[in-house]
Amino acid sequence: xxxxxxxxNKNLEGGGVRARVQRFGGYLAGMIMPNIGAFxxxxxxxxxxxxxxxxxxxxxxxxxxxxxxxxxxxxxxxxGGRMVHGQRGAVIGAIATMGVIVGSEVPMFxxxxxxxxxxxxxxxxxxxxIQDKVPSGFEMLIDNFSLGILGGGLALLGRQVIGPVVQExxxxxxxxxxxxxxxxxxPLASIxxxxxxxxFLNNAINQGVLTPLGAxxxxxxxxxxxxxxxxxxxxxxxxLLAYLFFGPRVMRPTVPGALIIHFLGGIHEIxxxxxxxxxxxxxxAIAGGMSGLLTATIxxxxxxxxxxxxxxxxxxxxxxxxxxxxxxxxxxxATLVSFAVASALLGFGRGEKEETDKPVRPEDNVIVGT
Amino acid sequence: xxxxxxxxxxxxxxxxxxxxxxxxxxxxxxxKKLKKYDVDxxxxxxxxxxxxxxxxxxxxxxxxxxxGIAPNAVIVPFQVFMGDPAFAKVESAIKQGETLEx
Lengths: 370, 102
Hints:
Chain A is an all-alpha fold.
């Protein structure tokens, strides 16, 4: 990191850890986010054509397996490679990812997120090592064969060594998640998910961690609650509504627009500043998130793919047939609880006079590194 | 500390974590505001801010990363995604040719 200058210093104190976590999470999310459209295509096809779907169709349902086994991990490995070493990195990332896909019993999202960047990084080192030694006229020959030989080797290594290891890890993570869900302790995840979310780790947590785990979960159960952990628009909606009625008067006019962008547009970032301005409101987000997840756990709610962005429309689109009550209940409960707690924390609008003048600069109060 | 005169600004970069959500939203509003001054507005993930960027607008929670990735750019942090004074500050600096600094 470059040294911060004087005016930024105050904002950056203690932010080093957060910036590092954000950046690492940013890389993870950066492999997934550009491919969300493919997740949605797969989710829609799944919701429509599987035997329990809206219009079961065996022929169309044949798409479901290959898409999640091959297409999605290959896209992730490709994108991960591209982030490290451009187009050549993308190609070798996809080749290496193929090695962990084949023979695996679980969708290889984690393996793709590992192999894509790793293969690209190795190719980058190789390219840098030999670029000055290539005789003129042999560039294309050497470029193609260095990529092909290294990529082929990494695919073999993935098939033989890395794939089985990653599969063990994924199975282990999967059973860990199952244990959390079965013992009704998944709601405790909100205690760290919600604070991390408003520190702009939302994509890192959802796309970087929960989406790959959830997608693996879907292949077993047909739906996954993990897609609802970070994306539930309820907690943010409750906080914005509390601001609308009880927030500082200077802030209230900005809330209706934020409500629409948050709940309908699905850009949750819009509510983070409202929490950062009054950090105690994080308690409302946690309470909302936990109650939403508890509701979802009890009612056995789940989604077939990741609702991204976390808009109510995206939610409705990836809700499985017959799951609407459970999913909407989880959102509604989260909203009501978050609204009630946030309203109480805002003193129901009383005593806001002393606080109205100037919004506190959020970074001064935020606990970093949660 | 990087500084730039508003009249030299040809391009404003809006950055957010993924470069797909909030930055696109802010970029749309800034595009409308800055069109008449012939200033280009683009959005990007904070990890991929171009090294030669002149002015970068991003949320204060991401300012540290933005400054690390584009040390020569003027980083203008904002607090809220709509109606933040930082947006007006950038617009008026471009309009009046005032100096912008991180």
